[in-house]
Amino acid sequence: MQDVARLAGVSTITVSRVLRQPEKVKPETRDRVQAAVQALGYVPDLIAGSLSSRESRQVAAIVSTLAGSIFASTVEGLAQTLREQGHQLLLGTSEYSAASEEQLIATALSRRPDGLVLTSGDHTPRARRMLADAGIPVVEVWDIPEAPFDMAAGFSNVEAGRAITQFLVETGRRRIGFIGGQHEGDQRGRLRHQGYATALKEAGLGEPRSIADSTIVSMVERGARNLAMLMDRWPDTDAIFCASDSVALGALSEARRRGIAVPERLAVAGFGDFEFAGDFGLGLTTVRIPGRAMGAAAGRLILDRKRGAPGMVKIVDLGFEIVRRGSA
Amino acid sequence: MQDVARLAGVSTITVSRVLRQPEKVKPETRDRVQAAVQALGYVPDLIAGSLSSRESRQVAAIVSTLAGSIFASTVEGLAQTLREQGHQLLLGTSEYSAASEEQLIATALSRRPDGLVLTSGDHTPRARRMLADAGIPVVEVWDIPEAPFDMAAGFSNVEAGRAITQFLVETGRRRIGFIGGQHEGDQRGRLRHQGYATALKEAGLGEPRSIADSTIVSMVERGARNLAMLMDRWPDTDAIFCASDSVALGALSEARRRGIAVPERLAVAGFGDFEFAGDFGLGLTTVRIPGRAMGAAAGRLILDRKRGAPGMVKIVDLGFEIVRRGSA
DNA sequence: CTCGGAAATGATATCGATACCATAGTTCGT
DNA sequence: ACGAACTATGGTATCGATATCATTTCCGAG
């Protein structure tokens, strides 16, 4: 920066101003400085800048996983929103473990991010304390927790599970099953199941028919095997709600293998509206989640808070949408 | 840090040592310092640390997109490798534009990362100059470029396209088509097509039959529509190689709609081995790419170089694998 | 008991920017 | 023509750690 200043015949602070608040510098001085920046190929050091200004212009995000197309679009939406507003994304993946989430939070905080985005779920007490001590905006994305830590951007898994089950009821189905299964420590499947069970009870449709075998790692395989188990146990089942589209894919394959007609004999509903679910693919009836929008909203919440926007919203419910296709 | 030092009755530099090189501090002093750290909930400031030590312990990655399950696993593999070795990941998404890649490189470099991971492809001249000036390890992932900028971890799209086409030939197919289409600025589809064309020529099978309509945004829809176009134009086609599994999914759906028996009448091969391609899903014959491994390898290349490992490998070819399933 | 050398610890300068306050130059109203 | 109120620019301290070199402590051989 000194080199640039010398070449432009100004002081370092003026160079800094040209880069950060150009409108405060006289146009011709500005041009001279910018020319010097170009000529020297000067790249400012944000590490030093952050230390000095006490704002890092980075936001950390900690997600369970990027694979399986679950959080990828959320992270992408977040990254883009941040970028548009001059911020950067620091990413960590916790692999569905609350312990490693705690670890990641600690290292993320040591970068002094201006905000933190977490996938909602269990956080250890220590993690919560660290977050509180850090005093930065925190957004939980995906499921909106009953008692958010700070802010939240997402939807209600319970409501979504309830809605899709109600949809199946409305289309005339009466013996509705559920297949899914949750990762340990991941309560999403559980919440969707809860919505399903509630809807059944509300419609007076008897006991839930649920299979949630978590011994199988692949979601698709789990869908296939669990459908088999479910149909063996309750052969008259006329609809199933699958905890994710991947599970639904496995179920659809198994149904075809067994010669069960979909949707005539069995309606299949998924969750997530993954790429393969569309009309030109599986034609799967499913629940569409605003993946990208949740990330973008999280970014906005953090940046608005940072700017000190008054009377701020803390919870953004982006809802969900039932997409009817051929399978139900 | 001063508070911790005072509480432990040592100087700040000793606190720093306890955190960074514990073995250089006498065990009892170390315990005292660690107790103080705990008691005060002290979280070191890596921004200051980075400025002082001139190493940031972060690695930046710039990928075109996270959606579509293409790069997500690579990023995840990278994040994990870095984490295991005490480094963090700074992520940017360029949305398939070389111009915004350039922009992202500039902002990434201003964080003074210890290394940079890029998806291979076109880089602007300015981008290349910035990278050269930065003097940090750079790894290109996915396709191994003919002239890598610095290091590379990936596989050959051309070879993979050639191999899967050869596989189709070996299984008795003679009139093999290609459907795909590339994003502008993304040469992956083009390279795969090149391998396909080479294999055809080597087998003496006449001219390529390719449809690559890029007007359609969704890959799945593109697969469906392009298969339709291809079969209309060359009705006797007995196999197709799709530039990605998503395209193959669309093609499979369209084939079913038209009553074309797969694989009897038409063999379908995809690319990528996405989640839905497996035996419990589509049962798609495809090319498996070492997504996670490429990320992990990229991380290792950077960290090894940082450690100054001598006689280093610069190119890691992780190959690919043809997975035969029911569709071909 | 003494001395050499290793182990443990500390004092101070420094990394590269920005905050804060001061100063010089400019505009304009009366 | 003069001072008020801006605008444009600069000097210096500072952010919170670590590098470097200096100093002290400790240990065992002779």
Characteristic key phrases:
16% strand; homodimer; alpha/beta; 3 domains; 328 residues; DNA-binding; Rossmann fold; 12 helices; four-stranded parallel beta sheet
**Total strand segments of chain A:** 12
At CATH level 3, the topology of the largest domain in chain A is: Rossmann fold
Mean pLDDT of chain A: 93
Number of domain modules of chain A: 3
What sequence of helices (H) and strands (E) makes up the elements of chain A? HHHHEHEHEHEEHEHEHEHEEHEE
* Major beta-sheet overview of chain A: 6 strands, parallel
Straight-line distance between termini of chain A: 64 Å
By secondary-structure content and strand pairing, the structural class of chain A works out as alpha/beta
Question: Overview of this structure, please?
Answer:
The structure is a homodimer of 328-residue chains. With 328 residues, chain A is α/β, with parallel strands linked by helices. The first copy, chain A, has three domains: 2-44, Orthogonal Bundle (434 Repressor (Amino-terminal Domain)), CATH 1.10.260; 54-156 and 291-318, 3-Layer(aba) Sandwich (Rossmann fold); 157-288, 3-Layer(aba) Sandwich (Rossmann fold). Chain A is 45% helix and 16% strand. The first copy, chain A, contains twelve helices and twelve strands. A six-stranded parallel sheet of chain A has the order 2-1-3-4-5-11, with helices on both faces. The longest helix of chain A has 16 residues, at 291-306. Chain A is elongated, with a radius of gyration of 25 Å. In chain A, 50% of the residues are buried. The interface between A and B is large, with 63 and 63 residues. Chain A binds a DNA duplex (30 and 30 nucleotides) through helix 2 and helix 4.
